[in-house]
Amino acid sequence: MAANIRTSSIKTLRSVRIHDEDPSSLWDISFARNNSETTISPSKSATIDKKEEEDSSAPLVLPALVHPHIHLDKAFIHGSKEYSDLLPVNGSFEEALHFTTLAKKRFHHDDLIKRGNQLVTESVAAGVTAIRGFVEVDSTVKMTCLEVGKRLKKEWKDICQIQLVSFAQDPIFSGQHAEENWRRMEDAVRDPEVDVIGTTPYVESTVEASRKNIEWAISRAWELQKHVDFHIDYNLNENSEAMVWHVLETLRKTGWTASATKARVMLGHCTRLTLFSDDEWGRLASTIHDHDLPVSFVALPTSDLYMAPLPVGENFKRPHVRPRGTLQVLHMIQALSLDTVIGVNNVGNAFTPWGSVDPISLACLGVGIYHGGKPSDVAMLYECISTRARAAIGLTESSVDIGLKTGYQGDLLILPNVDQTGFGQTRPKQTVADIVWDPPEVSTREVVSNGRLLLKNTAMNRLASIAVESIQDS
Questions:
Q1: Which residue from 218, 229, 157 is spatially nearest to 193, judged by alpha carbons?
Q2: Listed GO molecular functions (predicted)?
C-alpha cells in the first residue's frame, strides 16, 4: 500500500506560519539535500501590497503526529462482513474480551494486511508519521499478527516509522493456554524486528500471576534492551491493588534508570490511578523522579470513557450513575512533571466502537475532558500527540516544543487555509489552538515525511500555489 503513495522532494516552504510568540509572522522552511533537517528563517517573499493576503492564506506548519499506542491487528473489525456477528450487545469489558477472542480465531493473513493498511493509510493521511503498533502473540493467532506487523513495518518504513510491539493480550502465567502463550512470547520478543515487549497483567487470574507477568516483561526487556509497554490498572475499583507500584519496584530492583539505558517504560490506561489521593499521586511522582525511572503514561480516553471496567455493585442498578475515568493528562504534566501523552488505542472494535484514527480529534476531545481550553493548554495537548508522544516511545530525545527551530529533523504537518464547505467560504486557522479547538478535515492536510511531501489525490495542488518551492517529482 505504501508503494502507491507518491512523494516529492522539497527545497523550501515559503511564507508559512509556525507556532511562536507572534502568530502574524511568516517564515521560510528550507530542507537540507537528501534529508529532513531544516533551516527556518523569517520570510522575505511577502511584499507590502500582498502582506494582508499572505497573512490570511499562509498555511500553519507543525510537527507531524504520532500514535504512541494503537493496535494494528484489531482495527476496523466492525467494518468487516466476516465479523458482523461480533458487534457490541451490552458493551461490557468481558464482552469485548470475548468477542475479540472469537474474532482472533478468524484472523488470516490477507484480512490482517487489509485492515492494517487501512489503519496506517488513514493515519498517515491525518498526519501521523510514527506509530507504536501492537500485534498479538498467543495460542490463538500464533505468530500471524506479528508476521503481518513486520510486513507493514517494512512496506511503510519510508513514510511512517512503525515501532512494533509483541503483545500478550492473553494470560501468560495463568489459565489453560498460559504455557503456550508464554512460550510464543519468549520466541517473539527475540525477533530483531520487535522493538517493544507488551503485556496485560490484569488479565491474569491472580494478583501473584499479575506480578509475575510484570516481572517477566521487565526482566526480558532489560535483558534484550527493548522498551516495555503495559496495559495496566484498567479498572475503577478502589478495592483492587494498583499494580503500578509493583512495576516501579521491579524497575528499581532491576536497576532500570534513564541514565542506564535508552529503553523506556510505558504504562497505558491506568484508570485505577484516577482514584488516588493527593498523597498517593505525590508518592508516585517522587518515586519516578527520585529513582530516575524512564516511565511514561499514555491516556487512552476514547477507550477509557467507553470501556473502563466499573466495579460490580449498585452502579449497574443506577443508570444515571456511571463513573468514568481516564488519566488527567494536563494535571499530571503541569503539577507533577510526569511524562504523559495521549493515544488512540483502538478503532472500530468492541473495545472502542467509536472515534477515528485522527490524533487531532483526540486532542480536541482532551480540551473538554481536561478542561484545557486556554492556548497554552491546547499547545500542550498538541505536544501530547506529536513531539511529546514521539519522545515518550523513545524515537527522539529532542525538545518537546512544537515551535519549529533551525535544525529540526522531524516530519511536518502542513495545514493550509482552504474552503472546507464547498461554497467558497474560508475561515483561516492561524494558530495551534485554532487547529485543536476545531480540527480541519483530513483531506485538507498535507504531510512531509523524511523531507518529502506526500502527494494526495486532490483535484488541485494547493501547496504548489501557496507554499512549496522547487518540488522534484519522484
A1: 157
A2: hydrolase activity, acting on carbon-nitrogen (but not peptide) bonds, in cyclic amidines
The SS3 of residue 286 is helix
What is the identity of the amino acid at 344? V
Q: Where are the beta strands (DSSP E) in 350-436?
A: 412-415
β-bridge pairing 27-31 and 38-42: antiparallel
Q: How far apart are CA 173 and CA 176, in angstroms?
A: 10
Query: Which is it for the CA torsion 378, 384, 388, 390, positive or negative?
Result: negative
Report pLDDT for 319: 63
> How many structural domains comprise the chain?
2
pLDDT recorded at residue 474: 45
pLDDT at 460 over 70: no
| Same-domain check for residues 304 and 450 | no
121 falls within a domain: yes
State whether 337 and 450 are in the same domain. Answer: no
Q: How confident is the model at residue 420 (pLDDT cuts 50, 70, 90)?
A: confident
Bridge pairing between strands 295-299 and 265-269: parallel
Tell me, yes or no, whether 402 lies in a domain.
no
User: What DSSP line would sit under 58-98, residue for residue?
Assistant: PPEEEEPEEEEEEESSSTTGGGSGGGTT-S-SS--HHHHHH
Whether the CB-CB separation of 390 and 66 falls below 8 Å is answered with yes
Residues 93, 120 within the same domain:
yes
Does residue 135 carry a pLDDT above 90?
yes
Q: Which of 357, 392, 427 is the last residue of a domain?
A: 392
Give every CB contact of residue 154 below 8 A, 6+ residues apart in sequence: none
Q: Would you say 389 and 342 are in contact if contact means Cβ atoms under 8 Å apart?
A: yes
Q: What is the span of the domain harbouring residue 283?
A: 65-392
Cell of 199: 503485556
164 and 19 assigned to the same domain: no
Domain assignment of residue 189, yes or no: yes
Residue 361's CB: how many other CB atoms inside 10 A? 18
The CATH number linked to 315 is 3.20.20.140
Per residue in 349-378, pLDDT (tens digit) is 999 999 999 999 999 999 999 999 999 999
